[in-house]
Structures are given as C-alpha cells and as structure tokens.
Amino acid sequence: MPQDVKINENNSTQRSEQPLLEVRDLEVSFGDGPVLHGVNFTLKRGERVAIVGQSGSGKSTTVGAILGLLPGNGRVSAGSMTLDGQDLGAASEQQLRQIRGHRIGLVPQDPMSNLNPVMKVGAQIADALAANGHHGRDNIRQRAVALMTEAGIPDAARRYNQFPHEFSGGMRQRVLIAISLAGEPDLLIADEPTSALDVTVQRQILDHLQTLVDARGTSLLFITHDLGLAADRTDRIIVMADGRIVEVGTPEEILFRPQQDYTRQLVAAAPSLLATVSGTETVALEAVEPVAGTDTILEVRGLVKEFSLRSQGGTFRAVDNVSFSVARGTTTAVVGESGSGKTTVARIILGLEQATSGEALIDGKSITSSTGQVRRALRRKVQPVFQDPYGSLDPTYSIERLIDEPLRVFKVGDAASRRARVALLLDQVALPRNVAQRRPNELSGGQRQRVAIARALALEPEMLICDEAVSALDVLVQDQILDLLAELQDGLGLSYLFITHDLAVVRQIAHQVVVMKSGMVVEDGSVEKVFMAPEADYTKELLGAIPGAAFAR
Amino acid sequence: MATTELRPRTEVDADKGAGLGSGRGRLWRSLRGNKLGMTGGVLLAIVVLLAVFAPLIAPYGPAEVHFATPFQKPGTVGFLLGTDDLGRDIFSRMLFGMRASLEVGALCVLLSVVVGAPLGLLAGYWKWLDAIISRLTDVTLAFPFLIIAVGLAAISGPSLQNAAIALGIAHIPTMIRVVRGETLRIKESDFVLGAKTMDASGLRIVFTHVLPNAASAIIVQATVIMPVAVIGEALLSFLGLGIQPPTPSLGIMLSDAQQYMFRSPTAAIIPGLGIAAICLAFNLFGDALRDAFDPTASSRK
What we know:
The structure holds 2 protein chains of 2 kinds.
Chain A: H1 12-15, E1 21-30, E2 33-43, E3 48-52, H2 59-67, E4 74-83, E5 86-87, H3 93-102, E6 104-107, H4 121-131, H5 137-150, H6 156-159, H7 169-181, E7 187-191, H8 199-216, E8 219-224, H9 227-233, E9 236-241, E10 244-249, H10 251-256, H11 261-269, H12 271-276, H13 280-287, E11 296-308, E12 315-327, E13 331-335, H14 342-349, E14 357-362, E15 365-366, H15 372-381, E16 382-385, H16 399-409, H17 415-428, H18 445-457, E17 463-467, H19 475-492, E18 495-500, H20 503-509, E19 512-517, E20 520-526, H21 527-532, H22 537-544
Parallel strand pairs in A: 3-8, 3-9, 6-7, 7-8, 13-18, 13-19, 16-17, 17-18
Antiparallel strand pairs in A: 1-2, 1-4, 4-5, 9-10, 11-12, 11-14, 14-15, 19-20
Helix pairs in contact in A: 4-5, 4-7, 5-7, 7-8, 16-17, 16-18, 17-18, 18-19
Chain B: H1 9-16, H2 24-33, H3 35-52, H4 54-57, H5 90-125, H6 127-142, H7 145-156, H8 160-187, H9 190-197, H10 202-238, H11 250-257, H12 266-293, H13 295-300
Helix pairs in contact in B: 2-12, 3-5, 3-12, 5-6, 5-8, 5-10, 5-11, 5-12, 6-8, 7-8, 8-10, 9-10, 10-11, 10-12, 11-12
C-alpha cells in the first residue's frame, strides 16, 4: 500500500491512533524457500514489545527485514511493513538510509565487535550525529557528550577521546545505545542487547535503556531468547518459532496462561523463571539430596593462582585463597561473573593450569602436586564438558572416534570392546547409535553437547567438570541437557562441578553453591540457603538481577 | 544411515558458522560449484596426463634431430607444433619438458612439506622450539634461493634433483610459517584442551588433532608453491643451473629459442604458454581448494 506520506512530517493528529509499525503477512525467503511465514504484528507509539524465540526462530530475520538489511540473498517475498504510514518494502535504498538511524535506531547484540577499534568512541557517536544532519564541530561534540552522559557514561567529556578497548563491555553497550539514540528515533530495536554481558551489568543497562525509552516516548522492539527478560521489560510478548508467530500476549498471559504447547514448553524450560519459583520445585530438589554427605570427592584448599602482568611487571591474582569441597554424588555450582576466576579454578582442577599455591584433592589425592602415573589415574576420575560444543569436538573426527578417543589414549580394551562401549555411551546420552559414523558438523548444538558428555563418560569418571556446559544452547535444549545430566547423576552416582554465570541454571541443578567475585569466594552453602537467605551483598545483587523475578509466584 | 531424526545441517550451521573442517561431500560440492576452479582442475588433469604419458603420446624422441627440417611452422605435416633450430619436434619436447617441470615442482613441494610441516607443527606447539626454528627460517630466508642453487650446482653439478632441492629449501620457510600459524590457532581450541585433560601426550595431540586440522592449509600452500617451483625450474634451467641439455625442459626450450627469437618466435612462445598454463591451472585449482576448505567462504559468495 504505497502512500504518499512525507518522512519527516510528524503530524500530531495522525500520531495518536495509527500504529507506529505495522507488519502484515511478512514472508522472507533465502534462496528457494521462505524462512518467515506470514508474520503479523503492530507496535504502538511508546509501546514496548518483545520478540522471543530460539536461534533459528526468525526473530533476527524479522528485524533484518524491517531495517532493509537482510543478509546475503534474503529478500522480502510477500507482505508489507509500514512505519508511520510509509511502506518500508517500497522504500528506495536512499529513503531506507534516512529511516535507519533517523526513525529507527538499532542497539546491536555484540558490543565487542560493533565498535570500530581504531576510532575514538566520541568520534563514532559524532559520526552518527553528522549522518543525522547535525552540523558544526563544536555543536556535534557537545551533543555527543550529552548523549554519552544520557546513556549513563560517567565523565563523558574525558571519555569522549578514549578508544573502545578502554571501555568495559557494559560501557561499550552504553556507547552503542548513545549511537542508536543519535537520530532521535521513534522506534528503537534492541537485538539481544545484553546477552554478551554479565547479569548485574545487564540489569543496569536495561534499567537505563528503559528510563531513556520512557522519557523520550520511544517505542521499543526487544529481541531476546530469554523469556524472563522479555517479561520484565516489555508490555507485550510475541513468541516466535520456525519463522511463525506462535503466540502473542501480555507477560502475564504468556507466563501464566499460555495457550500453545510450544509456549508452555518454553515457559517450563525458562530457567530464570524456575529459579524464582519457590515451593514445589525446592522440595523436589531436596529429595535428591545425597545420602552420604560426608564422602568427599573433591576438595579445594587455599587455592591461589597468580598471573604475571607483562606490561606492568606485577602480578594479578586471578584466584585468591579459594576453598570448597564437593560431596560424592552431588552437584556443586561455582557462580560468578566474567573475571571472577571460576574458569581458572576449573582449569586447575583439570590439571590444565598450575596453581601458585594451595591444592586440589581428588579422592584425597592431590592433582596439583602429583606427577606421572598418579596424576594420570587422577585425571581419569575427572573429565571436562566444555561450553562450546562447536569448538570442543575435533571437526575432522567421526563421532565414534571422538567418543572412544579417551579409551584409546588410556589404552582401554580392544577395537571390538571399544565399539561396544561407544554404542552403550550413545544410548546413555540418548543419541541414536547410527550417529557414530557421522561428523560433528552434521549434528545440532544439543546433539554435539550430548556427544561431548558421552566422551567425558567414556572412562567412567567419578566427576564431571562442566564449564558453562549449557550456556551456549537454546533454552529448550538446555533444559534437555540439564535433565540428562540429572539422570546420569542418579544412574551413575556422578558428581558435578558446574561452572556457570547463570544463577537460574544453578537453582535447577545444584545442591551446593559457591559464589565467586574477583577471585575470592564471597559465599557458599546449600542452594536453599544461598537463594532464600543470601548473606553477602554481592549474592543479593546477583539474585536480584535474575530476569523474571517480578513474576515469581 | 541417511534417515534419522537428526536436524538438517543447514539449520545447525546457520547460527554458529559450523566447525573448522568439512565433510568430503561438501568439499566436492563446493569444488563442483566453482567454475573457475573446475577449469583449473580440468587444465591440471590434462597437463598431468600429457606429462605422465609423454613417451606414449610423443611422435618423436625429445632429442631426436631432423637437420633437414629446422624452423618449421606449427601445423607442418608431421610436426604438430613445428620444429626448432635443430629440427627437433616442439610438441614432443613440450611433453617431456612439462614432465620435467612437474617433476621438479612435485619434488620441491614434497621437500617443503616433509621438512616444513613437521617443523611448523613443532614450532607452533612448543614455545621453546619456536624460538630456535623461527631463527633458522629467518636465516634461510636471508639467502636468495639463486645463491643456494648456484652453490648446489657448484658442489654436485647442475641437475634436476639439485634444482628441486634448491627450490625446496627456498620454500620450506613459508611452509613452516603457514603450519606454525595454523598450529597456534588449533592449539587454543577446546578439543585440544579436552585431549590434555585425558593426559594425551603432546606428540599425540600434534599428530592426531593438530595435523588433520592443519591439512587443508598445507594442501592449499602446496598448490601455491607448485607453480612458483615450475617457474623456478624454468629460470634455473634457462640459466644452465638446472636440467642439462639435451634433456628438454620448458626453461631450456626458452633458452634455446631465444637466439632465434625473430626467425622462429613459436619455438619460444609455445614453452612460455606451457609455463603459463601450468601456473594458471595450479592457481585456479588452489584458490578453489582454499574456498572449499574454508566454511565461511561459501556463504560469502
């Protein structure tokens, strides 16, 4: 529907009733087949709407279509998108450029790669201002500093001249927000704006974004995979799956009265919501509490790890006097934000790093000071599951060879017995046996993580170190993997050390929690104690930052 | 085994850019889809077949002279591409010349891979070895390869083997650097960490994980070295440091024809075209291979 409405004419009478953005029967195709099928939604002025979906659900494609920035050979094959009466599908490239930035602002996902590393931060904001018709160096500079202050960057006038690497992740995201607001857009699209950030930073950024949007009356289209986050931050939620809209509703409707099976699954799987639901879940968890709590599989005593800083010549204490223990058959979660030293602890226990002082005992024997055969035997008892199932499996190996690699390294059995063991392990992680001859890149992320678990189990270890083992996965898949881990624990009596930044996941799987900050243990105790009666301020802060808290029943 | 409930690959690969390596099927499909690469591949196959079956195809011996018919033009009855100053059949000499060129090229690549790849792996994986090996490559790079060739010729006389050795030595440092870079990258991946937690030895990791993943880079680098070696052979033979007359090589043919450039230009043009064709074939095919090995390249096209 081509209408002749001028772009910059903000007619106030027209404003009130007409939706700001209207998407009708949108269909987007890449090559042969459509990936978006008849997507319909509207966005009113000042409204905040979230699109929630897993990877591959089409949420980012929808945004790409609205912005006229579809990647590769993608094209809008049917339907229309109208922004304030103007047909975006019929707009020329030049008109679209005018609209992007000026009418629609975008806060992109990754603050690390979306800023030019060789250009001063202020200059990048100034660039955006100049592109939006601001003139005069001094004027632009003043505007940029004001925008930075508004986006919550302290001491903006000084930081104007700094480079992106001098900014933390959260501060970079604020810069991106400032850039997106430079054109004073009517609609702000935030594409997973905080998924690369720590939870406490995430909360600050989103709080700030929300106040900005409210103060300016800007509409917000919020793209996220986190249902809890969407519920916290928006007025309406659109649930997408496989390129279709599954359900639309207010946060209350979606969370408490979901109409579709898919939405119900998603709500059930969302760990952030589970984490805050008390009562029944807690009881269920306590039922699996270990019988023999005294038998310790892992004990960490006064662990210290220092890295020498090459530039200043000093040392940096990544792990500072960390002590905790894990009882056999239980799960202990180590929680902390990036830089808290949790991964270094895991690497020391796995024998990948040398501790500066202190020790890690497995079954009463120190892995940090042992060598040769003793160390080899200890390593057999502790196996890792890494975060990224795309990087932890050698792409040149077949699945069978991946799973039996530990057996070959430790020279266990012969070819026939190893093959039988692989088949058994595949059964244990609920993968069909015929994947054995495939290669990792033929499997999905969840399947790969199952392969990684099967491989970790090959040597019949007593403990698995899971380093962010589910954080790269979609919620539904994440839920399945967590279930699998729980089943394996029941069946095989495994102990887990679960390294994660996600408190919500901790609630679901762990018995004990160790909270770390800046290399030190801030708090530790049972899940119930830490979640219900946190003592350290930092723990309280972390708990408060879990999205979806407002909807705890 | 094709029918399971596994998700289709495209869906998996869409969000994360897939793994580092590739199935053989995908590699072949990518090569097939690359028209330039296929042209190079076909050209390469023709050149290799002609060179291998040279004794069967050639109408005359490579050194067989026909004093009665020098300087024949291409298309002359009995001499497909004409004859040179001594009445030798250019077509036959071309076949044997390409054979010699490819032989030198293959030997040179073999030498650089056999010596360069292991050194690159060692230098990339063990830091203390890196210092030593990298200094040695620097020293080698400081010698122009012509000096090495002249030196070898002076010691044991000019020959095909010596030309190949000199060229091989000249290309070892580049191979070391490529493999070292790949090793540094692969060493950081989680699957290497995983192998370490199994207490796998360094050598085991290098040969079972790093080498297979670096193989594509080695193959691509080999296709880069090959045409340079062919040109290098022509150059050395032209200067009299490589293959010795009357054995034909593309370089010797050029050098012989040079004196009669204006009387019979085809005798110089044809070996020149031969060198160009071999280089083009390897370059096109090498580019296509590199694209096929690189999982991100296909989506960019």
